[in-house]
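Worked problem 6 (solution included).
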Amino acid sequence: MLAGVGVVLAFCAAMVLLGRPLESPMQGYRGLSPRVPEGAFPSHEGQRFLNLPADHTASLYRTPEEGDLISEWTGGTAVVALGSRFFDGFTDWELVRDPSGNEAWVAALFLDEQYTAADPPADDEEEYLSAVWWAGEIAYCVNPAGGPPGLDGEAFVALVERAAARWQEVTGGVLPLASRGRCESSPDTRDDRVNTIGWADDLGLAIAGQAWPDVDHGVLSEIDVRLSRGYFVRLQARDPRKTLQTCVFSTVVHELGHVLGLDHPRSRSLPSSMQGFGASRCQRDQPTTLDRANLLRRYGPVGTVVP
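Solution. The predicted structure is:
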């Protein structure tokens, strides 16, 4: 059983972050009007920044429901919020005007009033443990049903177990993770006391995966992980150089970090597999020294010295 003192909603929200050069045609004026979906509501207007590292690129869409890529801009770019927000059932979107004059939707998670992604993190930002903690063994099982071809069977089970082993490798095997192999339980069922890792059909344009807790009177009894089949299918169609195995593995490593009790770091410049952006870069598969230090604070033997 898992206990905690708060509700943790851990998800990997991921813009399509591709390293395009500044002269990319995706930064030109398209002349298309955005589509404002039913259910959009007023929000604040004014200048915002794409608060991502400068080597990442955020995507702007004509509609947050159906896509239609309008432009892409590097971290640090200033945009103008136009006072309209929309929740697609998974994440918030903000209507903005980009530097070329396009009006389009961007995931609100990546907007801030100040640009901080280039600032060095403060010492107190290096600890990003959540309120999640486990009283004992963290048993999980894997349901490959509904996955894309090649990851809809035993290959997906093996991939998840490799991702769990990656965390064990960096912490010297102290984590109480335990695989129960393949199962038929659904990651959509949050009250069966089974920590299931599996597939969802689609979690929208911006989310690659979710680590989703079941909460009962403040006690967390399970965390299910859902991976978005639609996200990875779109990612591979857009950039065939990205292999399904590599990109899904990277996301599973990240989501297992949430299961273990790691949050997204507050500083976006902090090196970590737990950063809440960059899923489409498929490069978060190697936990960092700081990730290791955070987990050893919680799971290391008594007397463990964490640098």
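Discussion: The chain is about 20% helix and 30% strand.
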